[in-house]
Design brief:
This protein has helices at about 5-15, 30-35, 100-110, 125-130, 180-195; strands spanning about 45-50, 55-65, 65-70, 90-95, 115-120, 135-140, 155-160, 165-175, 200. By secondary structure, the chain is α+β, with helices and mostly antiparallel strands. The protein is globular and about 50 Å long.
Length: about 200
């Protein structure tokens, strides 16, 4: 997910609606789906991978997968790179679903298989290992800095493969009417995060 989006979003919403208390939960995709469907939470920010049965989703923005490499990597001189070219290079993968499934799918579309060398449940560890030259990583979300948590430089390289964009959505259970608080937060997220001509809602 995009953890760096949450603090400014919450801070801005608090300034507009100071009387509203928010409880934040960070969890994996399947767990968040279940929490929504069971009424345990009102809204969730999710990356959408295909249809989400039982959820109503409003798209906030879309992005294409890309790769990150260390600053001294030869690919930094390229305008774009294909996954087939990277198939033999060590891949550092975020181990939480659906990252592995995404990597397999994207490499399959490129007619290649990923050479997964390292797995970690920390996205910052992924970026730090890449910055140290231990391999490359595929990402979806944009990052607000081009350095790792250790301060080592990273480089982003677009993929030339014709991969579908992945949507960042705000979702709620389709069978549950959102509370006034949830509707207010949904509207604020739409106004704050969405770019022009991006918004659309699916049930």
């Amino acid at each position: 997910m995009t953890p760096f989006l949450i603090p400014p979003l919450v801070d801005g919403f608090r300034q507009v609606h100071p009387a509203v208390d928010l409880e934040l939960i960070e969890s994996q995709l399947d767990e968040m789906r279940q929490a929504l469907l069971q009424g345990a939470c009102d809204l969730a920010l999710l990356h959408e991978f295909g249809a989400q049965p039982g959820l109503s989703c409003t798209t906030l923005r879309s992005s294409r997968p890309y790769v990150i490499v260390s600053a001294g990597h030869p690919m930094t001189e390229r305008k774009a790179v294909s996954l087939a070219e990277l198939a033999d290079a060590p891949l550092i993968i975020y181990s939480e679903p659906p990252a592995r499934q995404n990597a397999d799918h994207w490499f399959s579309l490129a007619g290649a298989r990923p050479n997964i060398r390292y797995r970690t449940s920390s996205i910052e560890a992924v970026r730090s290992m890449v910055a140290r030259g231990l391999g490359f990583a595929t990402l979806i979300q944009s990052w607000p800095t081009d350095t790792s948590v250790e301060g080592l430089p990273l480089a982003s390289v677009p993929l030339s493969d014709p991969l579908d964009e992945v949507e960042l959505v705000i979702a709620h259970a389709a069978h549950i009417t959102p509370t006034h608080r949830a509707r207010a937060f949904l509207q604020y997220a739409r106004d704050t995060l969405a770019g022009p001509d991006i918004l659309r809602t699916t049930d």
